[in-house]
Amino acid sequence: MRKIIDEFQPHVVIIDPVSNLTNVGTADDAKFMLTRLIDYLKILGITTLCTSLTESGGDGNSGIGIGIGMGISSLMDTWIKLSSLDNGSEINLRISIVKSRGMAHSNQIREFLITNQGIEILDAYLGQAGGLLMGSARAVQEAKERNEEIVYLQEAERKKVELENRLKSLDTQIIALRSEYDRKEEELETINKEEKLRRESVEGNR
User: Fold this and answer.
1) CA 174, CA 88: separation in Å to the nearest integer?
2) Within a domain: 133
3) 86 within a domain of the structure (yes/no)
4) How are beta strands 78-86 and 91-100 bridged, if at all?
């Protein structure tokens, strides 16, 4: 492998998968060989991508090939974990960053899709129950929340129309009360004028 690298002088080297190297040697042999090879690639400044296949009971943290991966993990700058979740009706693919040396990175587990346009990483989606939802469960919860939003908007629109009608009714009442207030004010002013004229007339007669 080093001979081919020296002859070809690549910018990127992909070893896929490192866990398969145990077929031609022991796990320790593969680990020592990979340690020397990755260190050599680092010295040459060659970007290296290593994949490791694992089999586990679901958490992806134990199984075939993980011993090699753990043995060389300290040499890796970024560790990306891909896993699948079988919920009984479908299999959902998940991606997360175990570590990424020297740079900020998300600690979320994201669902990803393999599409005709390539890999699509979906935004993290938390249901109202607080759990991470993926696949059909996510679609069902999103549809439910959309329906709830429609019902809420319809109820809000109904209340809005009701309040607008009530305000119009109040405006009419306010106009009527203002008109009555003006009439009473004019009547009071007339009474005051008549009373003033009456007093002046009495004083004049005296």
Assistant:
1) 65
2) no
3) yes
4) antiparallel
CA distance 166 to 151: 23
- The sign of the CA dihedral 149, 152, 158, 161 is negative
- Please compute Rg for the chain using Cα positions: 40
In a domain, 153, yes or no: no
**pLDDT tens sequence across 168-178:** 999 989 998 98
User: What tens digit of pLDDT does each residue of 57-87 get?
Assistant: 444 443 334 455 656 777 788 999 998 888 7
**119: containing domain:** 2-127
Residue 111, beta-bridge partner list? 94
Q: What is the pTM of this model?
A: 0.57
State how far the Cα of 1 lies from the Cα of 16, in Å rounded to an integer: 13
Token pair 């004049």: residue: 204
Q: Give the CA angle between residues 86, 132, 105 to the nearest 5°.
A: 105
Which amino acid, residue 159?
K
- Residue 161 covered by a domain: no
User: For the domain that residue 92 is a member of, what is the CATH number?
Assistant: 3.40.50.300
